[in-house]
Amino acid sequence: MPLDVTNSPFNEEQTEQLNRLLPMLTDQQKMWLSGYLSAAQSTASIQDANRTTQGQTATTGGAAARSVTILYGSETGTAQSLAETMTQKLEATNLDVTCSAMDDFKPNKLKKVEDLLIITATHGEGDPPDNAVVFHEFLHSRKAPKLADLRFAVLSLGDESYEFFCQTGKDFDARLEELGGERLYERIDCDLDFDEPAAEWMAGVLGELRKSMDQASEAELSGQQTAGTIVSEQPVFSRTNPFLAEVVDNINLSGRGSNKQTRHLELSLEGSNFTFKPGDSLGIFPKNNPVLVDEFIQALQWNPDETVSVNKQGDIRSLREALISNFEISILTKPLVEKAASIFHNEELSELITPDRKDQLKTYIDGRDMLDLVQDYPPDGLEPESFVKILRKIPARLYSIASSYDANPDEVHLTIGKVRFSAHGRERFGVCSTQVADRIEIGEKLPVYIHQNPNFQFPEDPETPVIMIGPGTGVAPFRSYLEELEETEAERKTWLFFGEQHFSSDFLYQVDWQKWLNSGVLSKMDVAFSRDTEEKVYVQHRMLEKSKELYDWVKQGAAIYVCGDEKHMAKDVNETIATILQQEGDMTPDEVESYLNQMRQEKRYQRDVY
């Protein structure tokens, strides 16, 4: 009797030949063939079942689920990281998701988007990040379409110490509603400590998306989510669980007579499993100056050993330790002063926050800290526990990495300028920079994490020339990049513009640049020392002096990288680049702006400014 070859891998002719051969096979050969066919039949049955299940999904939940588009505007990579996390969460529930940077999204496709999630940072004084500029302009132009069929939700990232806190997210949220979109979930504005509010927003959006699906789909997705939980391969150490990195070296780079103090900090990453690329940053969770904390406690005549809660989990610390390690007291913000007024019971402070004294409040908080506030507007009957509830956590400080992972896999180097200034009758100090400069000894440890910055990454194509503009500590990522080129023996045209105050005392990493110039790792270098000449000379002046050659590099496809001070240097450099394009390229202002936007989209003009 012939074997059952239903669902077998053989065609009709092969099956007839097989049956003719059966009488000639041994019992062992027949057993092997029978087992082979049985396995083939089982596989086919499974495939049929899968096809049936997929068909059922397509006619239930799959058909009901709307597609979700996630767009992010990111300056340092945080918004992108959150967007990618949200994408994983949505894909785990079998939703159709598209995630991209705003400058990679074609605005004319917006009309077809069903559910739009925007995750965006705010840059500078309320401006959109570089990779969100074009989309932001489009959405606020007359070309923006009516969006009556769109549902949207916005997660906005910012820093409360800035006047225009989360302004870009607020802009998107208001404009999408104005264009007819339906708000899927209320916008949440995140301060620097964004983990909890971002998680709340993600959970809320997911909940609303599930509500829009029918009962069959909801039940199916619930089973899929349980069975298909994403297994995280995140490193043990991260932003929420920082690695304690030992200080290996802490060198003052500034020479005698310098007006500055710039530190070269080396930390051991052995055991962290961290990796990084040139352009990435290291986050450090600093501590407040104990002297400032003691003066603050004394001003209020509080007991430094009294205990307070430091988080929502109810963890307890002494007041002094909490103010040193957990809470920010070094700056004032408008929201913080408003919260303080609600618990200080100080009539003058309550008057300061009224709308008609908006400008006076803005002037007051500039350059002042919490010690100023309690001295100028003493609270009445304020208890420590009530006070710490209005404070935000000490945010991490990000520093561009100044070393190559390939060259130093167990170390990370940073270039940190000590922040020190006088205001309102006393000296002020940067929280982290002063801790590094004055209070950290070799052998001590700092809590750190790697912050990847996908918006400041160097080109992989060896044919792409690289122009680097980094005055002061802004030169750090370029040291990382050149060290990596040396280690990997990669060949590329490179040009560095560096500026500082004095040649003799402020020429950071001078020996390194000289070594790389001699070896060819660094092709060209131009320097500007602003205090060595009667008329101040900055990097933008050196760029103008070399405008023809710089323009030739750009026309050859060079990528431009700018790192450093945002308020002055970055704006001046941007205007200088525009001037060079206009003069050497014979472009109109509109053509210059279009050309720069194209460079941004091609990742040929990237900035890491602060």
Automatic annotation (TrEMBL):
Its cofactor is FMN; FAD. PROSITE patterns: FAD_FR (PS51384), FLAVODOXIN_LIKE (PS50902). Residues 68-206 form the Flavodoxin-like domain. Pfam families: FAD_binding_1 (PF00667), Flavodoxin_1 (PF00258), NAD_binding_1 (PF00175). Keywords: Amino-acid biosynthesis, Cysteine biosynthesis, Electron transport, FAD, Flavoprotein, FMN, NADP, Oxidoreductase, Transport. InterPro entries: CysJ, CysJ-like_FAD-binding, FAD-bd_FR_type, Flavdoxin-like, Flavodoxin/NO_synth, Flavoprot_Pyr_Nucl_cyt_Rdtase, Flavoprotein-like_sf, FNR_nucleotide-bd. Residues 240-459 form the FAD-binding FR-type domain. This is Sulfite reductase [NADPH] flavoprotein alpha-component. The gene is cysJ.
